[in-house]
Amino acid sequence: MNTAPAETRQDRFDRGLEVLTRVDGEGGQKVIDSLADISPELGHQVVAWAFGDIYDRPGLAPRDRQLVTLGMLTALGGCEPQLDVHINAALNVGLTPEEIVEALLHSAVYCGMPKALNATFVAKKVFGERGLLPVG
Amino acid sequence: MNTAPAETRQDRFDRGLEVLTRVDGEGGQKVIDSLADISPELGHQVVAWAFGDIYDRPGLAPRDRQLVTLGMLTALGGCEPQLDVHINAALNVGLTPEEIVEALLHSAVYCGMPKALNATFVAKKVFGERGLLPVG
Amino acid sequence: MNTAPAETRQDRFDRGLEVLTRVDGEGGQKVIDSLADISPELGHQVVAWAFGDIYDRPGLAPRDRQLVTLGMLTALGGCEPQLDVHINAALNVGLTPEEIVEALLHSAVYCGMPKALNATFVAKKVFGERGLLPVG
Amino acid sequence: MNTAPAETRQDRFDRGLEVLTRVDGEGGQKVIDSLADISPELGHQVVAWAFGDIYDRPGLAPRDRQLVTLGMLTALGGCEPQLDVHINAALNVGLTPEEIVEALLHSAVYCGMPKALNATFVAKKVFGERGLLPVG
Amino acid sequence: MNTAPAETRQDRFDRGLEVLTRVDGEGGQKVIDSLADISPELGHQVVAWAFGDIYDRPGLAPRDRQLVTLGMLTALGGCEPQLDVHINAALNVGLTPEEIVEALLHSAVYCGMPKALNATFVAKKVFGERGLLPVG
Amino acid sequence: MNTAPAETRQDRFDRGLEVLTRVDGEGGQKVIDSLADISPELGHQVVAWAFGDIYDRPGLAPRDRQLVTLGMLTALGGCEPQLDVHINAALNVGLTPEEIVEALLHSAVYCGMPKALNATFVAKKVFGERGLLPVG
Question: B51 with B15, same domain?
Answer without folding.
Answer: yes
